[in-house]
From TrEMBL:
Lineage: Bacteria, Pseudomonadati, Pseudomonadota, Gammaproteobacteria, Alteromonadales
EC class (word): transferase
Job description of the protein: Methylates ribosomal protein L11.
InterPro entries recorded: Ribosomal_L11_MeTrfase_PrmA, Ribosomal_PrmA_MeTrfase, SAM-dependent_MTases_sf
Protein's gene: prmA
Any GO BP: methylation
Protein name per UniProt: Ribosomal protein L11 methyltransferase
Length: 293
């Protein structure tokens, strides 16, 4: 089945209402895109913020005559006569296949691979984490995850206790276990991340070494040899005393989720507790690392 889509530039204050109107007009799905370059990095739980300049895309069955819908929208005061819009044909595809085709095994550092379950493992003798994209963040394709995976691969984790703060899909926690960690604790504010990490750990046969907590349930006196936190600059600064307290003297720390321009400030802040290394960068993102004083 083929489709047509109607693209309309709108303001975030009108986007939801416009979406509802278009669903009433027979649209089968509504999607929102950034109309400018205004990144939204990490919305709070339960929030779905939109961009000031939002592009709304309404999908319709290809047989739909959109003329009455356009006429109707022209009566809306926030759009008006001759409002800017575009109608596009969308060729039908096997979207699941298309999506699956875009994920491939990726190598991080010397030993570690992240492999989608539907792909052949390129190097069965390597350290392989089987992981499919899901609702929680963390497939390995984002530079911040990649920087943390490369850092974990560079360590000798045999027998070490590790904390993964902001565990998302569990990708870093599971990689740490497969790289030799004795025990890993994953913490996340999002219960979907806890569920995803549990399922991914089970699939990788490492669930017995992974303990997962929402922050309010994490054990007191949780201490580790290695702590990795891929969150964002703001929370990393807020959480700094708590993070520092969890790392044993001489223990190792990696922080990511930082934009390059934020790295120096966060590094300076953490140097109260850690001897910090120079930052590593990938695309616009940075990773900091250090040793607990
Ligand atoms: C960028 S994702 C990282 C996921 C995964 N560790 C990775 O490297 O791909 C950040 C995760 O941190 C979680 N998070 C954000 N703020 C947090 C906080 N204050 N405490 C614990 N987790 C937090 C989010 O829910 C999200 O799952």
């Amino acid at each position: 089945m083929a489709w047509i889509q109607l693209r309309i530039h709108t303001h975030r204050d009108h986007a939801d209402m416009l979406g509802d109107l278009l669903m009433d007009q027979g649209s089968v799905s509504i999607t929102y895109e950034d109309g400018q370059d205004e990144p939204i990095f990490e919305p709070k739980l339960g929030e779905t913020p939109l961009w000031q300049d939002t592009i709304l895309i309404a999908l319709f069955d290809a047989e739909t005559d959109l003329a009455p819908t356009i006429e109707f929208l022209e009566t809306m005061p926030f759009l008006g006569k001759g409002f800017t819009h575009k109608i596009e044909q969308v060729e039908d595809k096997d979207w699941v296949r298309e999506w699956m085709d875009s994920f491939h095994p990726i190598q991080f550092g010397q030993r570690l691979w992240i492999c989608p379950s539907w792909r052949e493992i390129p190097d069965p003798a390597a350290v392989n984490v089987i992981l499919d994209p899901g609702l929680a963040f963390g497939t390995g394709t984002h530079p911040t995850t990649a920087l943390c995976l490369e850092w974990l691969d560079s360590l000798d984790l045999a027998g070490q206790e590790v904390i993964d703060f902001g565990c998302g899909s569990g990708i870093l926690a599971i990689a740490a276990i497969k790289l030799g960690a004795k025990k890993v604790t994953g913490v996340d504010i999002d219960y979907q991340a806890i569920d995803a990490s549990t399922a991914n750990a089970e699939r990788n046969d490492v669930a017995d070494k992974l303990a997962l907590y929402l922050p309010e349930n994490q054990p007191e006196n949780l201490h580790a040899d290695v702590l990795v936190a891929n969150i964002l600059a703001g929370p990393l600064k807020e959480l700094a005393p708590l993070i520092a307290e969890k790392v044993k003297t001489g223990g190792k720390l990696a922080l990511s989720g930082l934009l390059q321009e934020q790295a120096q400030e966060v590094s300076d802040f953490y140097s109260q507790w850690f001897d910090m290394d120079p930052a590593c960068h990938k695309e616009d993102w940075s990773r900091l690392s250090g040793i607990r004083k």
